Amino acid sequence: MAQSDRPLHGIVLSGVACAVFAVADVTSKYLSTSLPIIEIQWIRYVLFLAMAATLAARTPGRLVRPRNPVSQIIRGLCVTASSVLFVYGIREMTMAQATTISFLSPLLITVLSIPLLGEIVGIRRWVAVLAGLIGTLIIVRPGMAGFQPAALFGVASSSCWALALIITRKIARSDAPQTTILWSALIGTVVLTVLLPFEARWPTGWQFTLCLILGVLSSAGQWMVVLAHRLAPASLLAPISYTQLPWVTIGGYLVFDNLPDRWTLVGAAIIIASGLYTAHRERVRARAARMAPA
């Protein structure tokens, strides 16, 4: 059976990846209260690089040298910035708040696709974007007593991730997924190695073990995402990412004894609804493109 004919396998892999990422996020938040974030991310990226290098070595062909090195470097910087900023945000926010704000990425992709990809965005997708921004404002509540400055880290993280995904679209036809993963891991490791001396602290055995677990979980989740997108189209998998919210909510309650307030739930519902509609419009556009005469 061809890989493209196995969407159910892709959906399952994507769902498992969401659960794995949720455990990784809870672990990151726990570690961020006692270890420098740069150090946590450095250990994670070293393991990520080892996984990516192993993957590249087992794949036939020359994958180390990309056809778009500048784009790969920019993408690697965006991915690294997104992961670091996310942990800075999640350290001060509840798990549900931070994760919900990260769901802004699909909506930001719609906005960035206009100048960077030359796409035309219709009024219905603009309404979905506006709704998502309203949902974010409900969660962040700027100028109100419930406002948390850490939420700005989450918005910045989502923006970096959206830009990384836009670049991924542009280079997907010229560079293999293994190449992109390898370069993202390499660039992140280099950047964090440069920053490490400014924040390094010797971890305890328990902290180091948790960092290793975090690195393994993050790397496994990344690989499952790659496999899932080989088996099913991105428009089909996009809604699955929202299953991460209940997982992180459960993790936040079990580990940190916190639950999202009602405004976070309202904002999350709006963002998820707008994201699902955006994914639906992407599926409609992709179907129309396939049916258009050559």
Q: What this model shows, in words?
A:
This protein is mostly helical. The protein has one domain (34-214, 259-291). It has helices spanning 7-32, 37-57, 69-92, 95-102, 105-117, 123-140, 151-171, 177-195, 205-231, 234-237, 244-256, 262-291. It is globular.
What Rg, in angstroms, do the CA atoms define? 19 Å
Average pLDDT figure: 83
The global form is globular
Helix content: over 70%
Which percent band covers the strand fraction? under 5%
The major sheet is characterized as: none
Distance between the termini: 27 Å
State the domain count. 1
Series of secondary-structure elements, N-terminal to C-terminal = HHHHHHHHHHHH
Sequence stretches where pLDDT stays below 50 over 5 or more residues = 1-5
Multimeric state of these chains? single chain
- Count of beta strands: 0
Counting DSSP H or I runs of 4 or more residues, the number of helices is: 12
Helix-strand makeup class: mainly alpha
Describe the structure concisely.
The chain is mainly α.
Describe the secondary structure blueprint for this structure.
Blueprint: H1 7-32, H2 37-57, H3 69-92, H4 95-102, H5 105-117, H6 123-140, H7 151-171, H8 177-195, H9 205-231, H10 234-237, H11 244-256, H12 262-291
Search tags:
single chain, disordered N terminus
